[in-house]
Amino acid sequence: MKMENPTPIQWQFSERAQQLQSSAIREILKVTARPEVISFAGGLPSPETFPVERMRAAFDSVLVKQGKVALQYGPTDGYGPLREWIANSLSGDGVKIVPEQVLMVSGSQQGLDLLAKVLVDEGSKVLVETPSYLGALQAFSVYRPEFVSVPTDENGLLPDRLDDIGKGARLLYALPNFQNPTGRTMPVERRIALVEACARLGLPLIEDDPYGALCYRGEPLPKLLGMNPNGVIYMGSFSKVLTPGIRLGYVVAPVPLIRKLEQAKQAADLHTATLTQMVVYEAIKDGFLTEHIPTIRKLYADQCDAMLAALTEFFPPSVTWTKPEGGMFIWLTLPKHIDSMKLLDEAIEQLVAFVPGAPFYANAPEHNTLRLSFVTVPPAKIREGVEKLGKLIAAKL
Ligand code: PMP
């Protein structure tokens, strides 16, 4: 008995909702999803790395052996054995992380939302790198903070600036490993100085580390978490080492904060899917990641090298770029007069895409920057796409 011609609702969105925007990148990705486009725009891992068979076997095993538990509601903090696995993987070198410090979340993106929800009031100072991960800026924006951009150089953010700008801030959001969007890595001395500066200021320090395991040269650097487990909030994810479609990440923090996050998570979604948590545990519990991660590293390292070589071959000397030691991204700085947003329109006409840099700045965007991802495009196509971009830029000099 459907009503005849009901009056359409005039939606009165909340003030919070009114300032929500779609991510600039998601809009670009819609255009670049066309198969004929060579896209360096995505932040997606390469599907070639997804261990489909391993996941299928893990789903089968969990459903056959523990189906009734896997299909039931579960605790908000997450599946115990997986939390214990994570706690163990982060312990060592004199640091002991216990499962009570681990909260499972539906992708680390949810962790960012929950952290801002429990730590940030309207107008609170939130410190971010210049530039920073767009998804974090978006997640924090909902809570209407005052973003303070911490100055950075090629080694990441500058801890000696924090004494001036960090007082009274609610949190500092840092990406020490192969940062999204720049690909840069913070050296050990800088990490120590950062952790010390935050401890001095009593400033909670978020270490977002989805790319840490994807290191192509040398050994992974020590985590901030291990330097001060009482002051650092660590965020990890299975998206880049297993698959992003399972939406599984974790927050590791001192227990009083975890309890508060758990309350916020309970209100948001009760808990992260029991089935996926049990499947991931089943897939990794016997050391699978120690064989699997090196295969991802090899693929991405080769593609990173191909992109760096192509940039050297085809780009004019007035363009500079980062030389990442891991992760998925290279960051380019063009001559000041070139606006990468406009360049993108021309690039798409040539069937090549990238992400303009401006959306990654919380304040004062630098319009002559852009991000290239090297992980989803094979080396021959990388060379072809970089050559086209190089020609477009050279024509503007
Ligand atoms: N942090 C950073 C720096 C990221 O690049 C991403 C994904 N692009 C996330 C967090 C979110 O990852 P997840 O899939 O775990 O939600």
TrEMBL record:
Keywords annotated in UniProt: Aminotransferase, Pyridoxal phosphate, Transferase
GO biological process: alpha-amino acid metabolic process
Family the entry assigns: Belongs to the class-I pyridoxal-phosphate-dependent aminotransferase family.
The keyword Transferase belongs to this UniProt entry's keyword annotation: yes
Cofactor(s) required, per the database record: pyridoxal 5'-phosphate
Protein name per Swiss-Prot or TrEMBL: PLP-dependent aminotransferase family protein
Gene Ontology MF terms in the entry: pyridoxal phosphate binding; transaminase activity
Residues of the Aminotransferase class I/classII large domain: 49-389
CDD domains membership: AAT_like
SUPFAM superfamilies for this protein: PLP-dependent transferases (SSF53383)
Subunit comment: Homodimer.
Keyword flag Transferase: yes
